[in-house]
């Protein structure tokens, strides 16, 4: 199973990306990694970490796409960038199953759509990160920013793709789909959610359980949260900010208690660590870009080796579950029902 890593995407490239590649081939027997980027720099990191095996190969790419560049322009002009070279390899080689990048989100999504291409019938591919929920499981948010302006039929496809992802990645037999709105009542929301609600309710290949308020996003009562990219990105960033704010406030209040606070913190240190681990994205992989012809995973920009390894395991799991083929079948079935 061959997987491409964009070795020069992300804040800690190329060292952490290469380290993640080494971890992956050492721990996963059936995986080969292709690194794209400066051959000299990548080989230096491989040498520094003592890797001399045959399960990692390097494809030269002399350019890098930065976060500051306009995605479409960068994809078209920087044809020898580590990302574009990787996406073209993914498109052209049947034995390569997926690509992982911690680089510019816009460039990854634009490049995957333009170069790899959409699954037939998919209106808009969608970015789908997983959030840890209060019941110890995962909740998929789709879309989280790829499509800020949507039509109802896009949301219907998001619901289908999100359901197939949860089945493939986490073995959820009948994923509960919620439509993000401003209230749980059927009539709540704007024109988009009203029309999407009726579409989702009519679909017999998803388990639609109704509208969901944002405060219940992490409740564990939903497996898939469906919304347009504007709402999804706002929900995602607000959740991240709220978690960080709570951690900061807790530390501030503990310090106010002086010695008693410090003693209390020592007693609860294990609990705080457990909470941090539950909310830690590094062990969950990245956000899958659903709706393109091959597996593409966008890893967090600050990803280190542990996260890259998690992303590789994510691609392996989705490949073994025939994720892309299942999406193709589901989209075809949805189109036939609509017709």
Task: Give a written overview of the molecule.
This protein is an alpha/beta fold. The chain has 2 domains: 1-122 and 291-322, 3-Layer(aba) Sandwich (Isopropylmalate Dehydrogenase); 126-285, 3-Layer(aba) Sandwich (Isopropylmalate Dehydrogenase), CATH 3.40.718.10. It has helices at residues 15-27, 39-48, 71-77, 82-92, 105-116, 152-170, 191-202, 229-256, 258-278, 305-320, 323-338; strands at 2-6, 32-37, 56-60, 96-101, 126-128, 130-132, 138-142, 176-181, 207-213, 224-226, 287-290, 295-298. The protein has a 7-stranded mixed sheet, sandwiched between helices. A 5-stranded mixed sheet has the order 6-7-10-8-9, sandwiched between helices. Helix 3 (71-77) crosses helix 5 and helix 6 packs across helix 7 (191-202). The longest helix has 28 residues, at 229-256. The protein is globular. The model has no long low-confidence stretch (mean pLDDT 92).
Question: How would you summarize the topology of this molecule?
Answer:
Elements lengths: L1 E5 L8 H13 L4 E6 L1 H10 L7 E5 L10 H7 L4 H11 L3 E6 L3 H12 L9 E3 L1 E3 L5 E5 L9 H19 L5 E6 L9 H12 L4 E7 L10 E3 L2 H28 L1 H21 L8 E4 L4 E4 L6 H16 L2 H16 L1
Parallel strand pairs: 1-2, 1-4, 2-3, 4-12, 7-10, 8-9, 8-10
Antiparallel strand pairs: 5-11, 6-7, 11-12
Helix pairs in contact: 1-10, 3-5, 4-5, 6-7, 6-11, 8-9
